[in-house]
Amino acid sequence: MLNKRLKKSLQAVLPIVLGVFVLYFVYRDYDFSRIGEVLSHEVAWGWMALSLFFGIMSHVFRGLRWEQTLQPLGEHPKKANCIDAIFISYAANLIIPRMGELTRCGVLNKTDGVNFSKALGTVVTERIIDGVCILLIAAATFLLQMPVFMRFFSETGTKVPSLSYLVSTPWFYVSLFCVVGAAILLYYIIKVFGLPRKVKALVMGIRKGVLSVSKVDNPPLFIGYTILIWICYLLHFYLTFYCFDFSADLGFWAGLVMFVGGTFAVIVPTPNGAGPWHFAVITMMMLYGVTNTDAATFALIVHAIQTLLVIVLGIWGWLRISLQHD
Fold this sequence. Notes:
Number of strands: 0
Structural class: mainly alpha
Number of helices: 14
Strand content: under 5%
Oligomer: single chain
Number of domains: 1
Shape: globular
């Protein structure tokens, strides 16, 4: 019991500690009085409102796409509940990163009786599709804006080894051998001893959920939702450039470069990417001639407002679900 409590506490505390540490490193010499001045006189709130609208719509389209992937599994939750579950999941990620994926499956299980393991399988599929999308966007952006990325890697001290160097190191083959060996061992353990019934049912449910994407009733609609999700993500970030005089003229390509950099930064498990996201955006913004102070101000205000939106939407979704089932 103590170990479980300790593990849960560490899951909640360590991401926050990591985020605070990176934020301290980034903002240790920053004059926070600048925030009040910018918020009072320099922010174009109309552009910020438009940015937040696209942030909301990205969640709405994600909820609609999720509902579509559940239908081939014989699950038919309400569209509104799928959207509210998405709102709640992003808010849950602020408490424990990556907890939102489980939370939203639990929400639909409560509201519509959706099988938890099947729902989790669709989430796994969704994450795979998201990974492919951001890799395609990143690859195109990198090829078109390679000098900017090279400067970023150079100025941050990031080394990008070549593929030939990677496969020539002994550690690559040691790691590969360990992974293959572990996979073979796991296969034979399962083959000899089998899986406990509950675990087997969970695995089968996840498998069905993963395969559900191949059976959606309207593939063009699914693709359309996916494209709209990523367009909304990009606009949610890019339109914030027009909120400040010092970033209004940076242009679309600068926005795309920082969007890609920020997206990879939030992979680090901190609440809403706090810390790593700030570091990536500030560093890249400075490559386009923005001063350190202005870039830091931009990152702090934009991230805080977007995080506040996640909290508000999470509360909204939770209230709707709670009132619906009282």
